Amino acid sequence: MQQKFIISMLVSNQFGVLTRISGMFARRGFNIDSLTxxxxxxxxxxxxxxxxxxxxxxxxxxxxxxxxxxxxxEIKVMDREQSVSRExxxxxxxxxxxxxxxxxxxxxxxxxxxxxxxPQSICIEMTGESGKLDAFIELMRPYGILxxxxxxxxxxxxxxxxxxxxx
Length: 167
Prior knowledge:
This protein is of the alpha+beta class and 167 residues long. The protein is built from four helices and nine strands, in the order βαββαββαββαββ.
């Protein structure tokens, strides 16, 4: 059965690491649904979060292959019940004098920030779980989405559990 998996990794913060990891997904015929990467509290490490869709076999194969890469220090398939996940979108919506207030009201209901305002558009910043972002995007479609930029998922374990480097 196809499911969406979140794989979190600590990797060496060096050039070429992203290419090697994303290339491995491509060589194995797996699509990356989302990918985020950024430096951690330790400058020599980056945290990479990859979401992919597949069955249990696909997940196991990707984890097995990722563990073989020298640059991957630690890897974990995140449990959705035991972790907190968020995404960010920047959304530019077509707005005029007749629609502006409705868009602003909807943004407030979803606890979004209006980060730019012009006579023809409103730019909104939103963070949250993917489902919440999807719902807001669908709500804004009738107004006219001029531009959208969406990050991938970032996730952390709840409580004291942490993804720690083996080094």
